[in-house]
TrEMBL record:
<dbReference type="InterPro" id="IPR036412">
    <property type="entry name" value="HAD-like_sf"/>
</dbReference>
<keyword id="KW-0378">Hydrolase</keyword>
<dbReference type="InterPro" id="IPR006439">
    <property type="entry name" value="HAD-SF_hydro_IA"/>
</dbReference>
<protein>
    <submittedName>
        <fullName>HAD family hydrolase</fullName>
        <ecNumber>3.1.3.-</ecNumber>
    </submittedName>
</protein>
<dbReference type="InterPro" id="IPR023214">
    <property type="entry name" value="HAD_sf"/>
</dbReference>
<dbReference type="GO" id="GO:0016787">
    <property type="term" value="F:hydrolase activity"/>
</dbReference>
<dbReference type="InterPro" id="IPR023198">
    <property type="entry name" value="PGP-like_dom2"/>
</dbReference>
<dbReference type="Pfam" id="PF00702">
    <property type="entry name" value="Hydrolase"/>
</dbReference>
Length: 205
């Protein structure tokens, strides 16, 4: 990988913030889904795409999700479950971003929705570090579709190879690499920091 970049772009859930929709979904499904099936549910289900791109409300999604998985709960209960799966920023994320922002441009590229984005804005204290925020439900594009990487690159005004991107889903990382970005498959803050340090973008302490 080229160690020279113009901007560092981060996913949020599973990278900078504690979101676990995998294990709770496995439990809710009563054995219908294993961990990988639950992960792919979030990547591939058509209703997820609608939620991520702002084409449906969290409440409508919750009703469809409960129905499609045969869950014995109404939309309000399912929405409350979804909200509870987003816990907060990983310890150390705020400090890391503050350090990075002194030397680098920072941006967010996140598949997100109105429910979780509002919580992140109100409670997590991270977004002020970023120059640009590309949330899927606000821009109408989602990962790993090629169009979202083209959109972000165009908006940032940099060449593809000078973007470094960190995401916990390999499909999104692979798509970013196809777009010419430097992309890193990282799960949790420790792996993010390890990748940053290995490339000289974060000081070793």
């Amino acid at each position: 990988m080229n160690s020279s970049v113009d901007i560092l772009v981060f996913d949020l859930g599973g990278v900078l913030v504690d979101w676990d929709g995998i294990n709770p979904l496995v439990k809710l499904s009563n054995g219908k889904l294993d961990s990988e099936q639950a992960r792919l549910f979030w990547m591939n289900t058509p209703w997820i795409a609608k939620l991520d791109t702002g084409a449906c409300t969290p409440e409508a999604f919750s009703a469809a999700m409960a129905d499609s998985l045969g869950l014995d709960m109404d939309a309000a209960e399912m929405t409350a479950q979804l909200d509870s799966w987003l816990q907060g920023a990983f310890p150390g994320a705020d400090e890391m971003l503050g350090q990075l922002a002194k030397r680098h441009r920072l941006a967010v590229l996140s598949n997100n929705n109105a429910l979780h984005w509002d919580k992140i804005e109100r409670e997590f204290g991270l977004l002020h570090h970023f120059e640009r925020l590309f949330a899927s439900h606000l821009i109408g594009l989602r990962k790993p579709d090629a169009a979202v990487y083209q959109h972000v690159q165009r908006e940032l005004g940099v060449s593809a190879e000078r973007i470094a991107f960190f995401d916990d889903n390999i499909e999104c990382v692979d798509a970013a690499r196809r777009a010419g970005w430097q992309a890193f498959h990282t799960k949790g803050l420790d792996q993010v920091q390890a990748a940053l340090r290995a490339n000289g973008w974060l000081e070793t302490v």
